[in-house]
Amino acid sequence: MKNLAIVLLTALCAVTVACGYSSKAAAPAQPGAMPTITELAPDNTSAGGPPFIPTVNGSSFSSTATINWNGATQNRTHMTANQLTATIPASEIATPATVAVTVTNPGPRNGHLWRRHAG
Is residue 23 part of a domain? Predict the structure, then answer.
């Protein structure tokens, strides 16, 4: 009986490991979810300089998330659920200015296209 209990316990452990049971992974953000920005690096650049690649760190970035530079969507160059990068063209930094940087998770909700911004 003791051997049977050990065999059953071992089988249960093997099934649990094989099924990948552990703490549940966070679900990826869905389009339309509210993204959050925690850091922009670098947080400044030289006016009149060459194109540069800022990194936006945060959370809840969906697979369709975009970086908006002063209201204009930029071409994303790297993406994870917590980090986005985009190349900002030299023309966007030709003159000194303070600009808004936001992240948008575009997507449908209730049959309508909507956007939620973080900034």
Answer: no
Nearest to 116 by CA among 70, 75, 79, 65: 65
Q: How far is CA 58 from CA 38, 53, 118, in A?
A: 5, 16, 10
Token pair, residue 35, equals 């993204």
Do the domain assignments include residue 112? yes
Taking the model in full, what pTM does it have?
0.64
CA–CA distance, 119 with 116 (Å, rounded to integer): 10
According to DSSP, residue 13 is labeled: H
Q: Are 45 and 52 in contact (CB under 8 A)?
A: yes
Report CA Rg, the chain. Answer: 22
The model's pLDDT over 6-42, given as tens digits with 9 standing for 90+, comes to 434 444 444 444 344 444 445 556 656 789 999 999 9
**To which residue do tokens 């993204």 refer?**
35
Residue 106: pLDDT band (50, 70, 90) is confident
Number of domains in the chain: 1
54: left (phi over 0), alpha (psi -120 to 50) or beta: beta
